[in-house]
Amino acid sequence: MTVTQAEQAEPAVIEEEAGRLEWIDPLADFNPPDDPNEKDTNAVIIDPYNHRKKRDTGDSTQPDPGLIASAEAIGIQTPPILRPQVGDHEGQLGVVAGQRRMKAARIAAERAVAANRPYRKVRVIIRDDLKGADDEVLVASMAENVHRRAASPEDDLETAQQLTLLVGAKRVPKARKAQLAAAIGRTPEELDVAAKVAKLSPEALDELWECDVELDWVEQADYDAVRDVPNALMKLEQAKRKDQAEGNTKRGAWRQAMQALRAEQAKAERIAKMRAELAEKMIPVVNWPYRWEYTSARPLDELVSAIGRPLTEAGHNETCEGHAAAFDPADGEVVWVCTDYKKHGHRLAGAPDPDDTHSPEADEKAAAEREAAREEARRVKTNNAAWRTAREVRQAFIVDMCQDKGEAPADVKDLVLTAILTGRYTYTHYVTADSGSLLAMFLKSEKLRHTPADEVAKLVKRTGAKRYWWLLFAHVAGMYEFEHMTDEAWRGKKDEFGRRKPIEPQTVEWLNFLRKHGYSLSEVEEETLATAQQQADEEAKRVAERAERDARWRRERAEADDTKQEAEDSQPDEDGEPGDQTDAGPAEDEPEDTADEPEDGTRADDGEQSAAEDE
């Protein structure tokens, strides 16, 4: 029998329980205790059969910052599922699915109340049919978590890129842009680089996937810009961990690492360009050795000709077959060398004449002194370059500080007043083109480059009184940077006699002040503080030793004076009696007045005394 199409049975359609929609106040109704064993008496609790549990390690129930930001921006868009409870929790509702969303909503509400802003309730689905159906709840809760799969990074980037285009086309205000970014768990800065990150090569994405720390879109874009620098990813990972360990939300260590990597990249590009120019001139390039003593080559500035004349690059290139170039790893600059100075008749500058008799020990000592001088010169070059690199990051941090819209903290006011009242800078020297450009940089006003009075007056007039302190801080910051953070600041300036002075206390004060406000010091700045502390300790030790020597000298001098006095006191007087009795005054049995004593030494009252004795 043939069944017609009309006679075929309709497929069965099952309608599941949809539940009912309710609104939950995340502050009044939901506040799970930290201890899972503590009884929760709130209107909404975590269902006992919820698949996700709070663990001592690997806690997966806490919302991440992106989810919290999204809850603050647009609320919870996907309703959590709740069911009525039974037994000890009768009358309460249990969260079957969505406890992270509920916790994010509560945190967002707490922040809103703290900021005196309104907060959102959470729309939830209540499944009355699941009341008492623990097995179904357990399966449903686990299924939601097991089968849920996150979108791919490429999908996220493509969506963000589209959102960026829409935001740009509509010229969305900054506040709205920040809200949209927070809704997808990102920042406005990340939206700005979404298009750039979307173009990352597969190789770059693979490297980022292998990172031990997760990089956001801004950091991924930064890495892509310097990924050709050796060990770039490792250095950036270390910087990210340092920022996380220090709680630095301003990417302090990251900025320092990126600036150093950009400097390395620029140096590599400069070397590549110079290599090409040297190749055109057919000048060979030799590798920079670990120690020049182990090679036959030497830099020209360490050599003289056979008759003792200095060697120049031009002259050596024309007359010597050993002419070559090397790149100093400290700064990437070209160093002209002779590949075999002995073979080509040169000798080391300052070395003894070959005809003179000298000992091998003297040669070794001279070679060690040359290597020490070379190492010190290389250290100075390296630290100079690092100091200049750190300056860019530090001054960018100061720019951010000066844009603060709120009231300046007390220590900023103290610094400003102390600097001004103690006259720590000479105004006529400070207000120059260079320092004026610092003031313009910190306040983001090119019109202040030469600090004209009319522009300053306009700036003050349009600045609210609450921000006056930040204007003064920008002025004082320019003074510190101009006077106490020069290229030589990391090792101390020279005095008028050419002697190196200790690191200035103002340099130490300024670095410590900025670090207190969230600035992440670079390696050379950390080294500067350590050196300054060592110098201070050594100076304190010298002062203590000097004070001890002075005290010891005074004690010895006092003891010597006492000894001398005792010796003088112990000498007998003219009558053969100890001299100290003469100084001690008259004896008890002698009259105090001796003015009538005869010159022959007899006493006038001897007769009277004899008579008294006879009686």
TrEMBL record:
Acidic residues bias spans: 568-599
Organism domain of life: Bacteria
Stretches with biased composition (Basic and acidic residues): 355-371, 538-567
Occurrences of domain ParB-like N-terminal (ranges): 38-146
Region called Disordered, residue ranges: 26-66, 347-371, 532-615
Name of this chain's protein: ParB-like N-terminal domain-containing protein
Organism taxonomic ancestry: Bacteria, Bacillati, Actinomycetota, Actinomycetes, Kitasatosporales
